[in-house]
Design a protein that fits this description.
about 500 residues; alpha/beta; TIM Barrel; Oligo-1,6-glucosidase, domain 2; Immunoglobulin-like; 3 domains; 8-stranded parallel beta barrel; 16 strands; alpha-1,4-glucosidase activity
Length: about 500
Amino acid sequence: MTATGPWWREAITYEVYLRSFADADGDGLGDLTGARSRLPYLAGLGVDAVWLTPFYPSPDHDGGYDVSDHRAVDPRMGTLAELDGLIADAHRLGLRVVVDLVLNHVSSAHPWFIAARAAGPGSPKRDRFHVRPGRGVAGELPPNGWRSIFGGSAWAPFGDGEWYLHLFDIEQPDLRHEHPEVAADAAATLRFWLERGVDGVRFDAAGSLVKDPAYPELPPGWRAGDPSPYSDRDEVHEIYRRWARQLAAYPGDRLGVAETWGGPEVIGPYLRPDELGQAFAMDPLYWPLRPEPWRAGVDALLAATTRHGRLPAWVHGSHDVSRAAQRWGRDGARAMLLVMLALPGAVYLYAGDELGLPEVALADDEIRDPVFRRSGGEERGRDGARVPLPWTDGPAPYGFGPVGSTPWLPQPAGWGGFSVARQADDPTSALALTRAALRLRERCWRGRPAEVAWLDAPPGCLAFRRGADGPTCLVNLGNAAIDRRPPGSVLLASAPVGGPGLPARSAAWLA
């Protein structure tokens, strides 16, 4: 607990997409030893916590999110001893460690599913999964018309008249958390990692753990993002209340954060006092860069979270969306970083966005993401934001792994131009801005009142303050510079503030 609440209340958490962060052994895949070697960089960047994406044994059909053993480490990623060493090093550097728990589904290579597949129709071994008889004369049609989030039907046949549900890839069968063995195993997994000293847990696909047992069809005109019978149901919150009690049984304000996709009405229930500390605010990733949606959206998210004594967990980027520089443009990404750091709440930064990395256009045969395959190539998938990081100018693979090793996704020519080494001493770089912003946030914004006071601003701009004597954040969301200098002295700006005023797509903190 800090003077303003638990450590995570306004924390900056850096997402380490493990397989693309640092490769110590040269096999092309990032690993725990590589990540451990870069912890001093993260401490120097100024973040509070590190979120590690899955390192569990996996056939790797979906970037490690198809887990075959939730309480072990994939040998390609390292060992439990190496993870323990990473946690210990992080704590010595003042960093907390958050791990990803993927409890909505397992890999098709998980022992439970192997047994279910072999057992045959009606077997109790299939009761741990969502299994239904198919439609049609011989069960040759899926049980209903639900669609996978990755494309195609959400059902796959066993080949004996019964079908299993997979909201994601066909290799990721969904678990039935109503089943006592599934519930007990999830509790054991959570306990296992908490006892190893992790400071928090991100619950993957948080809203999908409970489905309507009637498996009704989606209503006509349903679109992704609309309420559905398999997401954010009331019953899911009893699961999080149980897990919240587990988290509370350990010292150190252990964090539970839900990977939620939706607006305030979705996020709010996860933050009730007996549930989780955070739920991802992903909607801002898609708000247009105009004042009206940002002002209304910020107000709504603050109302939904503060009513439960929580604050938003702003997501600046993640491995599931395109790079910030792609979504908002290079200048917009720098500006929105300053906006999110000034708002009340926590902020999640994605590895490489502090370098301003662009989205990488990959050839069809280079893409690994199952979204590409399941959508028949209509969706390019998420791999363009997952290309391994550049740490040095060169040669390839630019410090990601030993010289001569081949990363699991190809890095483009000239990738070293975005590297940590190239940006470290450049005061105009994205890295320099991020470091300066994280340092200054401690003094200017952290711990200030949770309310946002909106101020008069030029057309196309937003301005706000937190507390009567605090700094002002001014952001120009328009396509042209404002025609006068911002009032007050400039503490930090995402672009040079010259004679005409604040440039287009830029933000400034003003004293």
